[in-house]
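We were asked to recover a plausible sequence for a given structure. The inputs and outputs are reproduced exactly as logged, with field labels preserved.

PROBLEM: sequence recovery
POSITIONS: 598
GIVEN STRUCTURE:
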C-alpha cells in the first residue's frame, strides 16, 4: 500500500477544538530552451537564506474577527461587502506593532534575517543558528508515496518541540518548521490514448467548453470573470506554449499568467513531474471556467508546510487575488498526537486557519480540493490500513472544500453539443494485485473533521454531525485512475490537459476545485464584490434555493452514501452555474467553440 510520510513537527499547543490523490508522472517530450516564461517583472525570485521558520504571535480580538467575517457576508449588515485592507487588519486584529518589532529585533540579534507579516515574523538563518536558538536538531524528511516528488531541496524538520528564547516566550510566540509535505489531488486515467478532436463520447474527455455548457454557465458575453483575479498555489511553473496549445484548440486566446515566486519559486519546469501536471491542470481549468479573469501563479519550491504557509501569507499581504485555489492536501489526522509519538502538532493548522481568516476579512476566498481517496483519506497510526478522515486545507471552515463527480453529457455525432445528462459519484477500487490496500479507493473526498468545530454556515443545512464536514460543493472530477480495478464504472469521465506539448487525460478533485474557483470569479463579477468566506454564500443558497441552485439527487458512494440533501460525498451538490452566479435569466453558454462559449 502507499505510505505517507509523517515527520516530527515542532509545537506544543493543544488540539484544535472550537476554532471556527497524487498525480502520476506522464510522458512528454523535452522542453526547448526559452519556453519557460520569466516571472512577473518586479517580483523578487530569491529565497531567504538557510532554514526558514515562522514565528507567530497571537492575534488580538479573535472573537470580534469571526463576528466581522460573518457580518461581511450578511446582506442585512452594514458591514456587508466592506472588506479590510491588510493595514486595517493589522491595526484591528494583528499582534501589536511593538510586539512584532520586539520579536524581529530578538531574531535579528540571534543572527536571523527577518521579514515581518501581519501575524508574525518569517525568519531565516543557517542551520546551526536555527538549531541553537530553538534547541532542536534538524534533519531532512524521508518521504515515500504521493508526497515524495513535492519535497523541496531545503525542507527540514525538527526532532522535538522547540524551546523558545525567553524574550520570545514572553511575547507568547510560537514557532513552526516544515513538518509535512502535502500531495496533489490529480492522477492520470487508465484509459487508452485518444484523439484530441474526439467529441463523440458521453463521458468526454472534456474540454473546459464542454464543462461550461454542461453546468449551464452564463454566456461569455453575460459574465466571464472579468475584473476578478484567481490565484493558483502550486510547486511548478506552467508553459505558455501549453496554454496556447490548450486554449487554441477551442479558439480562445490564452491567459497571460502573472507569476509571483515565493521562497525562490519552483525549480525548472519538468513535464514528467506530478507538480507540472497539477499546475497545468489548475491554470487551464480555472481560466477555462472564467476566461475573462486574471490568473496569478504563486509558485513555491515544494508543498511543505512552510512553503505553503509562506504562499498564503504572501497572498493576504499582497491582497491582489480575489479567489485562491489549492489542489493539494493531507489527512488532518497526521498532525495529531497519535501519529507523532504523543506530540500534538495541530498548531500548524491553527496558523493556517488564522491566515485564512485574515484573507476572509480582506474578502479573499480560499478554495481547495477535498481529496481523491473518498471517505478513506487517512491511514491508521500503524500505517497498516486506510481509515476514514478528511484533508487539510479543505477541512478548514475558512476554506471551501470542493468534491467531485463523473459527468455524462449529450452525445450527438457530428456536433460539439455537451449538454448535461446526469452525474454520479461512485468510487473506483484500486487493484490489490498492484500493491493497493484492500480498502484503498478513488472517489470524492469527504467526511467529518475531528479538529474543527461545526461552523455557523453549516447550521443552515442538516450535516448530521457536530463538527465541520467536507466537502461544501462539487463539480466534475472524473474517475478510473491508473492502478484501479478494470473495467471501471461506465460513467467514469476525464478532462484534457496540455502538458509539455502534448494532451493528456487527468482526473481528480484537482480538476473540480480550480473549475469552481473560476465559477466564483464569474459570480463575483455578477455580484460586483468579493465574497470572502464563500461558504456563507454557498450554504445560504442551499438553505433558500436548494434544488433550484444545486443538483442534489446525484447517486454515489465514497464510503458514505449520497443523499437527497447535503452529504459527505458532494456537499450541497453540483451547481447550476448561472443560477449560482445570480444570473438565472442570462443567456447560457452554448455549444463549445461558439461566441457564447469560447
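RECOVERED SEQUENCE:
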Amino acid at each position: 500500500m502507499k505510505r505517507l510520510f509523517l515527520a516530527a513537527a515542532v509545537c506544543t499547543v493543544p488540539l484544535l477544538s472550537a476554532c471556527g490523490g497524487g498525480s502520476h508522472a506522464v510522458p512528454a517530450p523535452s522542453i526547448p530552451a526559452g519556453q519557460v516564461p520569466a516571472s512577473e517583472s518586479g517580483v523578487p525570485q530569491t529565497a531567504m537564506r538557510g532554514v526558514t521558520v515562522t514565528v507567530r504571535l497571537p492575534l488580538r480580538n479573535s472573537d470580534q474577527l469571526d463576528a466581522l467575517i460573518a457580518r461581511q457576508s450578511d446582506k442585512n449588515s452594514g458591514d456587508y461587502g466592506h472588506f479590510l485592507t491588510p493595514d486595517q487588519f493589522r491595526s484591528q486584529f494583528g499582534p501589536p506593532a511593538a510586539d512584532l518589532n520586539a520579536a524581529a529585533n530578538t531574531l535579528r540579534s540571534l543572527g536571523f534575517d527577518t521579514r515581518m507579516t501581519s501575524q508574525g515574523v518569517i525568519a531565516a538563518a543557517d542551520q546551526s543558528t536555527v538549531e541553537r536558538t530553538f534547541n532542536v536538531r534538524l534533519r531532512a524528511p524521508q518521504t515515500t508515496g504521493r508526497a515524495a516528488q513535492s519535497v523541496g531541496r531545503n525542507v527540514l524538520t525538527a526532532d522535538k518541540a522547540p524551546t523558545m528564547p525567553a524574550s520570545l516566550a514572553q511575547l507568547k510566540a510560537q514557532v513552526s518548521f516544515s513538518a509535512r509535505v502535502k500531495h496533489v489531488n490529480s492522477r492520470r486515467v487508465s484509459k487508452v490514448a485518444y484523439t484530441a478532436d474526439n467529441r463523440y463520447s458521453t463521458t468526454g474527455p472534456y474540454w473546459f467548453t464542454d464543462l461550461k455548457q454542461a453546468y449551464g454557465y452564463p454566456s461569455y458575453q453575460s459574465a466571464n470573470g472579468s475584473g476578478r483575479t484567481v490565484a493558483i498555489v502550486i510547486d511548478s511553473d506552467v508553459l505558455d506554449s501549453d496554454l496556447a496549445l490548450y486554449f487554441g484548440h477551442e479558439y480562445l486566446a490564452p491567459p497571460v499568467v502573472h507569476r509571483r515566486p515565493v521562497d525562490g519559486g519552483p525549480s525548472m519546469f519538468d513535464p514528467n513531474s506530478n507538480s507540472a501536471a497539477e499546475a497545468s491542470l489548475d491554470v487551464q481549468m480555472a481560466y477555462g471556467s472564467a476566461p475573462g479573469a486574471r490568473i496569478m501563479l504563486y509558485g513555491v519550491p515544494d508543498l511543505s508546510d512552510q512553503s505553503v504557509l509562506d504562499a498564503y501569507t504572501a497572498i493576504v499581504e499582497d491582497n491582489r487575488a480575489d479567489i485562491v485555489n489549492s489542489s493539494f492536501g493531507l489527512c488532518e489526522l497526521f498532525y495529531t498526537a497519535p501519529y507523532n509519538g504523543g506530540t500534538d502538532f495541530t498548531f500548524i493548522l491553527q496558523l493556517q486557519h488564522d491566515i485564512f481568516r485574515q484573507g476572509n476579512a480582506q474578502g479573499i476566498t480560499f478554495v481547495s480540493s477535498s481529496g481523491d481517496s473518498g471517505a478513506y483519506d487517512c491511514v491508521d497510526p500503524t500505517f497498516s490500513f486506510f481509515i476514514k478522515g478528511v484533508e487539510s486545507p479543505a477541512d478548514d471552515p475558512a476554506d471551501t472544500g470542493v468534491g467531485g463527480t463523473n459527468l455524462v453529457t449529450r452525445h450527438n455525432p457530428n456536433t460539439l453539443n455537451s449538454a448535461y445528462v446526469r452525474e454520479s459519484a461512485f468510487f473506483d477500487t484500486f487493484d490489490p494485485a498492484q500493491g493497493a490496500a484492500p480498502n484503498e479507493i478513488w472517489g470524492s473526498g469527504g467526511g467529518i473533521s475531528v479538529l474543527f468545530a461545526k461552523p455557523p454556515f453549516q447550521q443552515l443545512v442538516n450535516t448530521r454531525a457536530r463538527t465541520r464536514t467536507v466537502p461544501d460543493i462539487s463539480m466534475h472530477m472524473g474517475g478510473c485512475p491508473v492502478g484501479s480495478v478494470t473495467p471501471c464504472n461506465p460513467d467514469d469521465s476525464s478532462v484534457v490537459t496540455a502538458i509539455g506539448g502534448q494532451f493528456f487525460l487527468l482526473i481528480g478533485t484537482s480538476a473540480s476545485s480550480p473549475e469552481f474557483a473560476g465559477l466564483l470569479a464569474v459570480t463575483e463579477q455578477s455580484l460586483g464584490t468579493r465574497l470572502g468566506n464563500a461558504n456563507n454564500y454557498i450554504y445560504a443558497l442551499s438553505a433558500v434555493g436548494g434544488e433550484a441552485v444545486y443538483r442534489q439527487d446525484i447517486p454515489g458512494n465514497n464510503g458514505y452514501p449520497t443523499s437527497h440533501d447535503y452529504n459527505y460525498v458532494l456537499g450541497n451538490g453540483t451547481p447550476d452555474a448561472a443560477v449560482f452566479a445570480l444570473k438565472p435569466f442570462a443567456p447560457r453558454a452554448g455549444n463549445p467553440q461558439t461566441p457564447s462559449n469560447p
